[in-house]
Amino acid sequence: MTEPSRVLIVGVTGYIGRHIAKASLALGHPTFLLVRPEIASDIRKVEIIISLKISGARILEGSIHDHASLLVALRQVDVVISAVAENRLLEQLKLIEAIKEVGTIKRFLPSEYGMDPDRMVHCLPPAGNIFSDKRQIRRAVEAAGIPFTYFSANCFAGYFLAGFAQYARFLPPKDSLLIYGDGNTKVIWVYEGDVGTYIIKTIDDPRTVNKTLYLRPPANILSQIEVVSIWEKTSGKVLEKKFISEHEWLKQTEEEPDVEKKIVMGHLHEIFYNGVLYNFEADRDAEVAALYPEVEYMNVEAYLRRLA
């Protein structure tokens, strides 16, 4: 039996990075974490690193901006998984340069994990800027000839499902909520722990090299209305539903002065009005849940029961 690949995770203290690291350790991979010296002043990040170290992760001090330390780290691993933050995406160009120089990395997963950026070319700035950056990284990976896997996980439960996709809310609403359009657009909701597991499943699988993969757990392909209905049955509470038309949503987005909120509103428009997550057919060999049927993922109902 082939030994599990040695995995380097860059951006482990970010939102999805720690879930990937936990899954890597749980599935028996020698797991290395690239840790910047300056995190010593951030207690939240230090606690994440210590917890993973106790679980068996190996700490490598270094940085994308320190080329020598990056080469040292890369020469100890087989697979590189990036989970750098959205405002640091283009820093991965330095990582790609180092991976190419080392020449021994058998798989690279750039920081993505949401919507497929190659399907978001129509998304205009400022909401579309993140997808433009991700496309730039993809093209650089391909130009460098680095074996890759692109992973589209769709909507993280903590950000979207827990608050029913209400802006800046991460717990279920108590009284009322906005319903986008008629609320019937299909959305794909995924638990972050499952995202980590599926990502690690792909890294030693020859079926997934140089492919874009989509995580679409069948039981979690639900509309906003269906999610709210599950919550109402689970909690015994009926919420007031305020339907907002696409025209009104676009008007509010255009008038919104806060750039960060405008970006989120643009993404919500793509998901709930344009239906970008499920308006296309993916090849069966690109559907992650079908590739790994042995994974028992958390469904929407089970996730919401935890919040009731």
Topology, pairings included?
Elements: E1 7-10, H1 17-26, E2 31-35, H2 43-54, E3 58-61, H3 67-74, E4 79-82, H4 92-102, E5 107-109, H5 129-144, E6 149-152, E7 155-156, H6 157-161, E8 176-180, E9 186-190, H7 192-202, E10 211-214, E11 221-223, H8 224-235, E12 240-244, H9 246-255, H10 259-272, H11 288-291, H12 300-305
Parallel strand pairs: 1-2, 1-4, 2-3, 4-5, 6-10, 7-9, 8-12
Antiparallel strand pairs: 9-11
Keywords, please?
five-stranded parallel beta sheet; single chain; 16% strand; three-stranded mixed beta sheet
Task: Outline the structure in words.
This protein has 308 residues and is α/β, with parallel strands linked by helices. Helices cover 39% and strands 16% of the residues. The protein has helices at 17-26, 43-54, 67-74, 92-102, 129-144, 157-161, 192-202, 224-235, 246-255, 259-272, 288-291, 300-305, and strands spanning 7-10, 31-35, 58-61, 79-82, 107-109, 149-152, 155-156, 176-180, 186-190, 211-214, 221-223, 240-244. Helix 1 (17-26) links the parallel strand 1 and strand 2 (31-35). Helix 1 (17-26) crosses helix 7. It is globular, with a radius of gyration of 20 Å.
In brief, what are we looking at here?
The chain has 308 residues and is α/β, with parallel strands linked by helices.
Strand order of the largest sheet: 3-2-1-4-5
Mean model confidence by pLDDT: 97
Number of strands: 12
Report the β-strand fraction as a percent range.
15-25%
The Cα radius of gyration reads 20 Å
Summarize the helix and strand pattern as letters: EHEHEHEHEHEEHEEHEEHEHHHH
Structural class: alpha/beta
Distance between the termini: 44 Å
The helix tally amounts to 12
Overall helicity: 25-40%
How is the biggest beta sheet arranged? 5 strands, parallel
Tell the overall outline: globular
Question: Can you tell me the residue ranges where pLDDT is under 50 for at least 5 consecutive residues?
Answer: none
